[in-house]
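Input record (Table S2, row 170):
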Amino acid sequence: MAQTRSTTTVTDPLRILKADHREVEQLLGRLADSDEGDERRRLIEEVRTKLTLHMELEEQMVYPLVVERVGAEDEEEAEIEHGLAREGLAKLEELADKPGFGAAVAMLQAGIEHHVDEEEKELMPSLKDAMERDEWKALGEQLAQAKEAAGQPAPTTTTRRSSKRKKKAA
Ligand SMILES: [Fe+2]
Ligand SMILES: [Fe+2]
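Output record (fe (ii) ion complex):
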């Protein structure tokens, strides 16, 4: 049977955020193993760009909904944790060529681990429960569009459709 491949941008908000989390964790792991020099500087810059955009999008698009639907205190905690992550990023830059860099990376990793765990297991599932399916999907589309516009596209999935089914759907 003839098949066509189609690539679809992921528009589930939690999957988009999770993909960002995994990417930042991976970059931090590489930073932990890095030596002083240009490569480390480049990795710091990459993690700063990715993490900053991720936090800004959450703060603009996701957290206002958390205040409304989940609770102001949960949102406040998440905002404070973002503040700590921003301080952690500043420390990486400050200590890039100094002893103590490894400790700065470890502290940022631990803070992020705590934050993403809450976000993935509590905050986002609670938000999903409190939203209509269409709203949840619209949020994902909004996030995907903003990431695309910022030059950091959301992940895609490739699906294979038989031409027969495609014809039927048309
Ligand atoms: Fe996040
Ligand atoms: Fe967050």
